């Protein structure tokens, strides 16, 4: 079992612990805002399970039916997380509406808030671990899970701060109002997560800054060739696919052309982690006099 899968299992354990703590906080207080926080924690557990299944499946080697591997399944996981987040937000909005119509005092507010604060601290630590390791390991599923938890942290801090005012001011409508704000924030987060994941499913090119660097690497390591054109890039999970046409002199031997390709591939792989490179070699009469000029 690799590190990504171990982190995904860790998310399931941490998510379950946080849910138990947040539900205990809701049970102690009867707060709709804390209920919304606990409901989001249920979604955290579900999405952690989905993320684990995604990273486990994506780690499978390429096969006859999937010659490019299974890495894109992580994007499906992130999209599903976005859908679940949106569903949770709509459910919270419903509870907030009825709570606003019939506000009530909180039971044991300070004890419940203390338990919720402990759960929030656990999420702070784990979201940092997931985002840091997800980016390092180039795992969209882990990064999405970490960002989701970070949203949970931000909303939990807002809920805690707001609910402290309820027993002090006696304004019981503040509880459902905070729940509604939590729901709107979750809704926005879910939409952003889905939008980012869909870009991966649609084979979006690498960022412009990285693309410029790829062009420079090709240009600086293609000595002996004439030009490179039709450069294309795309992401698939932690992999980055790069393909282009390399024009060489027509009289050049296959061995010499292959040596140039090897040199370019080594340079690109040292620059772009987990790069999968395809180079189509062409004779000089195929030159387009456009694209990447060889230095």
Tell me what the structure shows.
It comes from Microvirga terricola. Residues 11-202 form the Cation efflux protein transmembrane domain. Pfam families: Cation_efflux, ZT_dimer. The chain crosses the membrane at residues 7-26, 32-55, 75-93, 113-132, 153-171, 177-194. The protein is built from 9 helices and 4 strands. It has 2 domains: 3-201, Up-down Bundle (Alpha-lytic protease prodomain-like), CATH 1.20.1510; 208-293, Alpha-Beta Plaits (2-Layer Sandwich), CATH 3.30.70. Strand 2, helix 9 and strand 3 form a beta-alpha-beta unit. It is of the alpha+beta class and 295 residues long. The chain starts with a helix and ends with a strand. The chain is elongated and about 85 Å long. A 4-stranded mixed beta sheet has the order 3-2-1-4, covered by helices on one side. Helix content is 67%, strand content 11%. Helix 1 (3-29) runs antiparallel to helix 4 and helix 5 packs antiparallel against helix 7.
Number of strands: 4
CATH class term of the largest domain? Mainly Alpha
Helix content: 55-70%
Order of helices and strands: HHHHHHHHEEHEE
Compute the average pLDDT.
82
Pairing-aware structural class of the strands and helices? alpha+beta
Q: Number of helical runs?
A: 9
Indicate the radius of gyration in whole angstroms. 25 Å
Kindly identify the CATH topology of the largest domain. Alpha-lytic protease prodomain-like
Largest sheet: 4 strands, mixed
Question: Beta-strand level of the residues, as a percent range?
Answer: 5-15%
* Cα shape: elongated
Low-confidence stretches: none
CATH architecture descriptor of the largest domain: Up-down Bundle
Please tell me the total number of domains. Answer: 2
Annotated CATH homologous superfamily of the largest domain: Cation efflux protein transmembrane domain
